[in-house]
Amino acid sequence: MFTLDQVRGFIAVAEEGHFGRAAERLNMTQPPLSRQIQKLEKAVGTVLLERDNRKVELTPAGAAFLAEAKRLVAASERAPDAARRIAAGMAGQLRIGFTATSSFALLGPLLGRITAELPDVDIELHEMVTSQQVEGLQNGDLDLGLARPPFDMNMFDSHPLLAESLDLAVQQGHDLDVRDGGISADMLRNVPLIMYSPTDARYFYDLAVRLVPFEHRNVVHTVNQILTAVALVAAGRGVAFVPRSARLLGIDGVSYVPIDGLADNVVEIHAVWIRDARNPALARVVHMIRT
Q1: 158: CATH
Q2: Claim to verify: residue 154 and residue 282 sit in the same structural domain
Q3: Residue range 78-103, pLDDT digits in tens
Q4: Do 137 and 185 belong to one domain?
Q5: Most buried of 5, 50, 128, 266, CB within 10 angstroms?
Q6: In what helix (H) or strand (E) does residue 120 lie, and over which residues does it extend?
């Protein structure tokens, strides 16, 4: 097998066309350089240079080897810096899971900051509900999630990113489209309701059940995504409980009405990650999020 010193010696001789000038360029004498080239040719298994008393020329095999040799040396010079940058979290890959509504409220600004501060970190995005993000973090498919609590705090660490109100999405012109105030739970009697799956959208299901007394018999559709719920509201299929950031979805024909008696910070999104994660780029981004 050949060495990088032999390859560098070959490149110098090929570019200078002369052993003496190449040896001077490498700060060495000509005899050891000649031995390096001989060892290289033996390792490669073919003659790379034609020699005479006046000049040195590449053989066809040598010309082909020269192009690869330059790439090899360039890669060897980049490799230590790349390794150091990855170890320091300045380069590498970060796989981020996010919910649909977090993409409107949080994802854009977060990606902008990561790109500005860590331009050599490649970001891979995956739109998922919280339960899928948790699974992705556990099995190593994700590094960071933008998800809804609660989380197993023995396994995960997290940081709150957003707390907002729970509103009622209604079709514009609906009886509950109250422009000058909120609505009470009593006003939801006998109103068709679009509700969330207690398994695939557990966070919003539990939140609605805990905060707003409503009749389960009024549920006409069960969905997994806020976007789907708002689209059904626009189609006149019923009303839906949504986070205030759902307004950013930009679906026409929908109004968002405050619900009386609810605090304005009941809906949360957290950054979440595995406690013992070892991705240095993740550590950088976590520090960024926390500060």
Answers
A1: 3.40.190.10
A2: yes
A3: 777 767 777 767 778 999 999 877 77
A4: no
A5: 128
A6: strand 120-127
Q: How many structural domains does the chain have? A: 3
Which of 23, 52, 86 lies at the terminal end of a domain, its last residue?
A: 86
Q: Distance (Å, rounded) from C-alpha 160 to C-alpha 78? A: 38
pTM here is: 0.69
Whether residue 15 sits in one domain with residue 132 = no
How much is the pLDDT for 82?
67
With beta carbons less than 8 A apart as the criterion, state whether 271 and 144 touch. yes
**Dihedral angle sign, alpha carbons of residues 124, 274, 209, 104:** negative
- CB within 8 Å of 104: residues ≥ 6 apart: 245, 248, 249
Residue 172: which domain range? Answer: 166-262
DSSP SS3 for 114: helix
Alpha-carbon span 40 to 47, nearest angstrom? 9
Same domain, 122 and 142: yes
Same domain, 272 and 154: yes
Cα–chain center distance at 162 = 19
148, 281: one domain: yes
Residues with Cβ within 8 Å of 229's Cβ and at least 6 positions away in sequence, in order, are: 169, 194, 196, 223, 240, 242
The Cα 96–Cα 136 span in angstroms is 10
Instruction: Calculate the alpha carbon distances from 62 to 11, 18, 37, 39, 265 in Å.
Output: 10, 15, 11, 14, 70
Kindly report the backbone phi and psi dihedral angles of residue 181, in degrees, each rounded to the nearest multiple of 5, phi listed first.
175, -175
**Rounded to an integer, what distance in angstroms lies between the CA atom of residue 73 and that of residue 11?**
10
**Cα 101 from chain centroid?**
16
- Say yes or no: 251 and 184 in one domain: yes
